[in-house]
Amino acid sequence: MKVAIAVDGKSVSQHFGHCEGFNFYEVENSEVKNSHFVPNPGHRPGFLPKYLAEKGINVIITGGMGNTAQVLFKQNGIEVITGATGEADLAMNSYLSGNLESTDEVCERHEHHGECGE
Questions:
Q1: DSSP type of residue 18
Q2: C-alpha neighbours within 13 Å on the C-beta side of residue 65
Q3: How far from 88 is each of 5, 23, 45, 52, CA to CA, in Å?
Q4: In the chain, what is the straight-line distance between the N-terminal and C-terminal CA atoms, in Å?
Q5: Where would I find the Dinitrogenase iron-molybdenum cofactor biosynthesis domain in this sequence (predicted)?
Q6: Which pLDDT does position 116 carry in this prediction?
């Protein structure tokens, strides 16, 4: 299984589409076997869900994400977990231990460029 966490620095990004990048985690038997950072290739409508699906991602974890992006991730077979906060590695550990549940948070603020989740 592959998990991506949207990050800004070492923290879970609170605005998915405009994150600095993604921490990719390869998981086997509930343990992280490998992890690496991938810079955000850019915020374009509908691009990131397909891009991450092509990278083999099964789960995306973030703070906030727009409704359109959530729908597109689900259409690409990727589980969406929103509402995560704090350090990305700690969020990953919480996910693996079954203690990180999605709040189904939908980002509707538009203080960033463009629209949330598009």
A1: G
A2: 32
A3: 7, 8, 25, 17
A4: 26
A5: 8-96
A6: 41
Nearest CA to 84 out of 30, 25, 8, 31 is that of 8
What are the respective helix, strand and coil percentages of the chain, to the nearest 5? 25, 30, 45
CA gap 36, 43 in Å, rounded: 20
Q: How far apart are CA 92 and CA 24, in angstroms?
A: 10
The CATH label, of 3.30.420.130, 3.30.70.100, 3.40.50.300, 2.40.10.10, for the domain at 2-96 is 3.30.420.130
Burial call 80-108: b when 16+ CB within 10 Å, e when fewer: bbbbbeeebbebbebbbeeebeeeebebe
Spatial separation of the C-alpha atoms in residues 57 and 41, rounded to whole Å? 15
pLDDT per position as a tens digit, 63-109: 999 899 999 999 999 999 999 999 999 999 999 999 998 987 666 65
Token pair 């990278």: residue: 55
For residue 33 the two structure tokens come to 């076997």
